[in-house]
């Protein structure tokens, strides 16, 4: 409950901060609701005046009714306009804040955690709830003001109407069922909702659409989307059905009781024990009482839903703050003298039963070109992400010139890194910027981009483009040009070459989609980059499963099932006749 209250408090504080005066104008709508609740009272006075032929009373009642109605209309216009404006401001603020929070978490652990992704999915599914949080709170204030006014009018007319008020109060007690049904539906639909989006992406993305058609998946994909959508929305539909049945039951009991009360009051009016004014007010206030009951129940459910999603927002904020609370403030050195040492390092993914890396102890000497080899799933890419600070070790340390990486400012450390990953991003910008984003300080420097293209053996990719570096990449954009998988990878490698003199240059399976001739050319350039890196002690880490590409490395590290099994030069490991020699022979045999 405390996070929910904190969240609703945050909504109000955000609204006032965005526009204090507009927040105040929202209350005009509440004042108008109070005036609207008095209408049955004025109608009752008018009816009594007409019966008693009291013109003065009729005029006063008519003026009060018309005046309050006009004032209500004016107040509603001002208040609703202010509310809509504030709702848009607050909604935009929360949407931007959620995007900022998810983007500033410095590690990647959370994007591979089902619990985090499910909660984020619920936030996304209910983003309109956060956007409309202020609207919900204002509706609650309006309902509360209207309810108090209606209850006072009803109580003054005849105390028997308090029976209907009691029925309305009883309805509030059952709202806990509605809120529980909604909460259960949100949580049950989170994982199917993520699956639905994934399947839809498969059917719409060019890469997914190609496989879908080649393997004839269209019918099966449509079936699975239908099943996923059903599993996603069915809990919500079931919750809505239950709430509709509950509301219908309440309405039936309410109007049956109201009919009995009106018959009773009519008999008393005929008998002369109750005034006609009381009966007229009672008739006029009945619908208001039913509205108050249903509105209050709806408001409670809505506010509870807002509270739940505000609590989730608070959870995301606290999670991001905790994840971003990296205590390291040390700046990255200008050069490396000793190099990088991995000391007793182990890592286990969230929810996994065993470590992906176990007790890794390894020296990456300053100025060395290190090849990290092993079969798929050996843990190569995981180790790279630990070196980049994208994961936090489960156990052990990464030492940079003897200093724990945890002591460093991660942004500063990453600014002295560069990388080209196998699972690279396809930046659908101009070719200039798709490469230039590798170093934002020189994003539009065409000379630097040309140099990076040469270093990454990708100059011919840009030469073949219609307008060179100014060519838009990606056919989803007007005038855009599509590249092959190998061309995209070479653009990514060139992007990794943008930063000059990085302390750690990571090339993670850089030739996976590249032909043999280009691969040979690339490794000549990698060797040159490694020699350049030696001048400032930089480490070049080449991650690959192609053994033909690592012969020129200073050091070869062999990973197997998350453990270091061999370390040495290419010739040493071949002569050792161990795991490396076995894999090297198996791969070489395939080329004979």
UniProtKB/TrEMBL annotation:
Membrane topology note: Multi-pass membrane protein
Occurrences of domain ABC transporter (ranges): 340-586
Subcellular location as annotated: Cell membrane
Superkingdom of source: Bacteria
Membrane-spanning intervals of the chain: 58-79, 244-265
GO MF term list: ATP binding
Key words of the record: ATP-binding, Membrane, Nucleotide-binding, Transmembrane, Transmembrane helix
Pfam families: ABC_tran
InterPro entries attached to this UniProt entry: AAA+_ATPase, ABC1_TM_sf, ABC_transporter-like_ATP-bd, ABC_transporter-like_CS, P-loop_NTPase, Type_1_exporter
PANTHER family cross-referenced by the UniProt entry: ATP-BINDING CASSETTE SUB-FAMILY B, ATP-BINDING CASSETTE SUB-FAMILY B MEMBER 6
Protein name (Swiss-Prot/TrEMBL): ABC transporter ATP-binding protein
Lineage: Bacteria, Bacillati, Actinomycetota, Actinomycetes, Propionibacteriales
């Amino acid at each position: 409950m405390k996070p929910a209250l904190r969240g609703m408090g945050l909504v109000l504080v955000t609204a006032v901060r965005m526009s204090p005066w507009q927040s105040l104008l929202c209350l005009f709508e509440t004042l108008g609701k109070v005036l609207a609740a008095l209408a049955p009272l004025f109608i009752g006075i008018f009816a009594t005046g007409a019966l008693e032929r009291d013109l003065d009373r009729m005029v006063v009642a008519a003026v009060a009714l018309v005046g309050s109605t006009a004032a209500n209309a004016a107040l509603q216009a001002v208040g609703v306009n202010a509310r809509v404006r504030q709702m848009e401001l607050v909604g935009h603020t929360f949407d931007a804040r959620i995007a900022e929070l998810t983007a500033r978490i410095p590690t990647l652990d959370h994007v591979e955690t089902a619990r985090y992704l499910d909660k984020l999915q619920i936030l996304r599914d209910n983003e309109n709830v956060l956007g409309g949080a202020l609207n919900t709170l204002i509706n609650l204030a309006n309902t509360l003001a209207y309810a108090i006014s209606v209850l006072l009018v009803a109580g003054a007319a005849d105390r028997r109407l308090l029976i209907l008020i009691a029925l309305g109060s009883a309805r509030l007690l059952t709202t806990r069922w509605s809120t529980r049904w909604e909460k259960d539906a949100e949580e049950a639909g989170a994982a199917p909702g993520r699956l639905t989006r994934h399947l839809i992406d498969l059917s719409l993305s060019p890469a997914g659409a190609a496989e879908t058609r080649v393997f004839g998946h269209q019918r099966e994909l449509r079936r699975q989307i239908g099943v996923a959508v059903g599993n996603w929305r069915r809990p919500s539909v079931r919750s809505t059905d239950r709430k509709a049945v509950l509301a219908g039951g309440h309405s039936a009991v309410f109007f049956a009781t109201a009919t009995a009360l009106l018959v009773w009051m009519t008999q008393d009016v005929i008998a002369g024990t109750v005034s006609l004014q009381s009966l007229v007010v009672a008739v006029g206030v009945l619908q208001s009482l039913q509205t108050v009951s249903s509105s209050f129940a709806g408001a409670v459910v809505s506010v509870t839903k807002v509270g739940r999603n505000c609590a989730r927002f608070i959870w995301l904020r606290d999670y991001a703050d905790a994840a971003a609370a990296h205590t390291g403030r040390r700046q990255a050195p200008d050069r490396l003298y000793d190099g990088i040492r991995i000391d007793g390092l182990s890592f286990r993914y969230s929810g996994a039963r065993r470590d992906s890396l176990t007790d890794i102890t390894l020296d990456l000497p300053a100025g060395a070109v290190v090849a990290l080899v092993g079969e798929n799933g050996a843990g190569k890419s995981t180790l790279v992400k630990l070196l980049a600070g994208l994961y936090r070790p489960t156990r052990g340390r990464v030492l940079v010139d003897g200093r724990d990486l945890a002591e460093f400012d991660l942004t500063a450390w990453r600014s002295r890194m560069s990388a080209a990953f196998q699972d690279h991003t396809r930046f659908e910008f101009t070719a200039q910027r798709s490469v230039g984003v590798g170093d934002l300080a020189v994003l539009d420097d065409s000379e630097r981009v040309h140099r990076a293209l040469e270093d990454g053996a990708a100059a011919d990719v840009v030469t073949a483009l219609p307008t060179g570096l100014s060519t838009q990449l990606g056919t989803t954009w007007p005038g855009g040009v599509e590249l092959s998988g190998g061309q995209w990878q070479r653009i990514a490698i060139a992007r990794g070459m943008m930063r000059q003199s990085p302390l750690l240059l990571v090339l993670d399976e850089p030739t996976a989609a590249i032909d043999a001739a280009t691969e040979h050319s690339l490794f000549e350039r990698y060797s040159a980059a490694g020699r350049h890196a030696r001048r400032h002690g930089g480490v070049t880490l080449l991650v690959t499963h192609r053994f033909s590409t690592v012969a020129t490395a200073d050091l070869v590290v062999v990973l197997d099932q998350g453990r270091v099994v061999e370390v040495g030069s290419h010739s040493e490991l071949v002569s050792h006749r161990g795991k490396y020699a076995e894999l090297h022979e198996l791969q070489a045999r395939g080329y004979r």
